[in-house]
Specification:
Blueprint (H helix, E strand, L loop, with lengths): L3 E9 L8 H11 L2 E10 L4 H13 L3 E10 L2 H6 L4 E5 L3 E4 L10 H26 L3 H10 L1 E4 H7 L4 E3 L4 H13 L6 H8 L57 H23 L3 H9 L4 H15 L15 H17 L16 H11 L9 H9 L2 E3 L2 E3 L1 H20 L9 E5 L5 E6 L21 E6 L2 E10 H5 L8 H23 L27 H12 L16 E6 L4 H9 L20 E4 L1 H6 L4 E5 L7 E6 L6 E6 L5 E14 L5 E4 L3
Parallel strand pairs: 1-2, 2-3, 3-4, 3-5, 4-7, 10-17, 14-15
Antiparallel strand pairs: 5-6, 8-9, 11-12, 13-19, 14-16, 16-20, 17-19, 18-19
């Protein structure tokens, strides 16, 4: 796509209101690729973060950007101007640079944090001014601190502009700047006097260039010369125009200073009203009445106190369209770090340090729900209650707690010290109906095929066991009292333990298969003499008893008779109660047969299998022990999960029997021994 040769953009009005970052980006993108871009500005400033977006978009543009200060570039508009490859001040135009400002309320620590953020913002802005002007950053900070106004020539001398262009009369530019506030009702007397002192623009033979959103001043009707004859109906009486003395070189225009003071008063009052949540109508009435800032703040505080007798300190946060998503994300990260569930970089996360009560109130603020003046228990109850958002009912606060509880539960599930996973297989079931697990027998040995003879089809028998899922679960609750008391254990340690309980429940089912000697599909117990997997005489693990286990597995018969001699199954795991762990390891790891008492007799079962001990076997018998083959090759015990979901599931609902929210932890699992040939039991002695 070829770049358009040139384009123009006009930024007239307050930033964040008449001029927005979103609107600018959309307008810039609509222009497509450009070679050059002229940006004409006339603004007393506005929201600094909006200005930074516009500044960065201009800096990132591949076009050559020329900034024209048509009337005034004050406050954050002067920051935008710094993005220009060339900055041109029109005759009579002014530029003002000062520190960013903001309001804050809350505790001493909260206000200090806000001040730190503001100081960092000041440093970033100062760096931009310094980079453009070539001045030292400390010098620029002083310029900002004292709030400095520049004429065009002064801006050029200071490095904030490149040249002054006289394309427009100074008086016209000053009048254009003044017109920005002429429409305001009840203009304060000092400002009105300054506005009346502004000279009217001079008439020129050619048309005057005026900003697109600035109406041109009407031209004065020319008076005929004495020698001319004029129609009286076409003549207008001359109107005297008061002339104000021009400002001395190096001094700012008093009228412009008055405009800036009025804008600062308006912004301060509106900002204070937004923080207190007293309503825009009340704030605008203070502006229209010309109330001084100090008096306006006192009236706002009084109005706020009437609505909320129990103020909850919090830092002022200016919310944008996706503020709810940002709140949920920030609150979750802050609580995860506080609970020790995750380690994350919390720099810039304003929700770090907030207690649960403060987060509950903040969730209502971002949802646009008014909770000030309500008892704290009622406020927390409102935070738990679902409300409409995005076309469906939801509770940001409840979702945050559910998120933390879910992560705590999964952490407990994953960190639990379970032993069954090593020697069992994992299966998937899609429903709760009884399901037959079909296991194919051995494929017959390949038959000799004589020259020219046909290949014969082999017949494979099958066998199967029936398995079925069941649901296991418990409930716990987080009450309003737990939130008021800032009780983190309610949704961290409790679900952590429930996660451990979920995996422990599955382990209980697995080892119950061994200890209960589950009945198989042939009507006989898993370990039975007819299955050739039960030792005839019980004894502790030793070279001899372990070797007997090995032989029993290896010589298991194929039901179809395809395996000559036996299935040749090899033991992979020895399952013992905790009381026999040492004995079993000694028997399997010793170099010599310890029962012989002769180091000349090697241990024939050394390294034959891995020892796994579990205390649940002690509960049933401290002497019985078991053997199992590799579950990836042979059928042993299968643990099935609904749709393969191994982790427990957390569900949430609003409490009815309790004041708060209830959580249900459940896991859907089924455990079944699928075959007996790869399993073995010695009852011990």
């Amino acid at each position: 796509m070829l770049a358009t040769s040139a384009a123009e953009i006009w930024l007239f009005g307050d930033i964040g209101y008449e001029v927005t970052a979103q609107g600018f980006v959309e307008q810039l993108n609509a222009l497509g690729p450009l070679q050059s871009l002229a940006v004409h500005v006339n603004s007393l400033g506005g929201v600094v973060h909006e200005s930074l977006v516009i500044y960065n978009q201009l800096k990132a543009s591949p076009a050559t950007v020329t900034m024209y200060v048509e009337g005034v570039a004050a406050s954050s508009m002067s920051l935008i101007v710094m993005a220009g490859d060339e900055i041109i001040m029109r005759d009579g135009a002014l530029m003002m640079i000062h520190d960013p400002s903001a309001g804050a309320r809350g505790t001493v620590e909260e206000i200090k944090r806000q001040a730190d953020v503001l100081d960092k913002l000041r440093g970033e802005v100062a760096a931009i001014y310094a980079a453009r002007s070539g001045q030292d950053e400390q010098a620029v900070r002083e310029i900002m601190r004292v709030e400095t106004w520049y004429t065009g020539a002064e801006a050029v001398a200071a490095g904030f502009a490149d040249r002054v262009d006289g394309a427009v009369e100074p008086e016209t530019m000053r009048a254009t700047a003044m017109d920005a506030v002429m429409h305001l009702p009840n203009v304060p007397p000092a400002l009105a006097a300054a506005l009346r002192a502004v000279p009217a623009p001079k008439q020129k033979d050619d048309d005057m260039k005026v900003g697109s959103n600035t109406p041109a001043a009407p031209a004065a009707t020319p008076q005929p010369a004495p020698s001319q004859t004029a129609d009286p109906s076409q003549m207008a009486a001359p109107v005297p125009t008061p002339q104000a003395p021009a400002p001395a070189p190096g001094q700012a225009d008093p009228a412009m200073m008055a405009v800036a003071d009025e804008r600062k008063r308006t912004n301060t009052i509106l900002s204070a009203a937004r923080m207190a949540g007293v309503g825009q109508d009340f704030a605008m009435q203070l502006v229209r009445d010309g109330v001084a800032v100090d008096a306006a703040v006192m009236q706002i505080q009084t109005k706020w106190a009437e609505a909320d007798q129990t103020p909850e300190p919090r830092a002022h946060v200016r919310m944008v369209a996706d503020s709810r998503d940002k709140f949920v994300e920030g609150a979750v990260q802050a609580l995860l770090m506080r609970a020790g569930l995750e380690k994350a970089n919390m720099a810039g996360n304003e929700f770090v340090g907030m207690n649960l009560r403060e987060l509950a109130r903040h969730s209502l603020d971002v949802a646009g729900m008014q909770a000030r003046g309500k008892p704290v228990l009622e406020m927390v109850g409102m935070a738990f209650a679902p409300h409409m958002a995005g076309g469906h009912s939801t509770s940001d606060f409840g979702n945050i707690l559910a998120n933390i509880a879910s992560k705590a539960m999964l952490k407990g599930f994953e960190e639990a010290e379970e032993t069954f996973q090593g020697w069992t297989s994992t299966g998937t079931l899609t429903d709760f109906k009884p399901t037959s697990r079909v296991d194919l027998n051995l494929f017959p040995a390949l038959a000799e095929v004589a020259e020219g003879a046909e290949y014969k089809h082999a017949t494979i028998g099958d066998r199967g066991e029936t398995t079925q899922l069941a649901t296991y679960g418990r409930m716990f609750a987080i009450t309003r009292q737990a939130i008021v008391n800032d009780d983190m254990d309610a949704f961290t340690r409790i679900p952590l333990r429930m996660g451990r309980a979920a995996i422990r429940t599955v382990g209980n089912l697995v080892y119950a298969v061994l200890t209960a000697n589950q009945v198989m599909s042939d009507g006989k117990a898993l370990f039975h003499a007819d299955h050739a997997n039960l030792a005839g005489a019980g004894a502790a693990p030793s070279t001899a008893t372990l070797d007997a286990l090995r032989v029993a597995m290896a010589t298991q018969k194929d039901p179809d008779g395809h395996a000559t001699g036996g299935l040749n199954i090899r033991p992979a795991y020895i399952l013992v109660p905790a009381a026999l762990e040492g004995t079993a390891k000694q028997a399997l790891e010793s170099e010599y047969d310890t029962a012989k008492g002769d180091k000349g007799v090697p241990n024939s079962v050394r390294g034959m299998a891995e020892v796994i001990s579990d205390a649940r076997l002690d509960t049933a018998s401290s002497t019985a022990w078991y053997g199992a083959a590799n579950p990836g090759i042979h059928d042993t015990v299968e643990v099935s999960y609904l749709d393969g979901q191994k982790a427990p599931y957390l569900e949430q609902r609003d409490g009815w029997n309790i004041d708060g929210t209830e959580f249900k932890v459940r896991i859907d699992a089924g455990v079944k021994a699928l075959g007996y040939r790869a399993m073995y039991k010695n009852p011990g002695a």
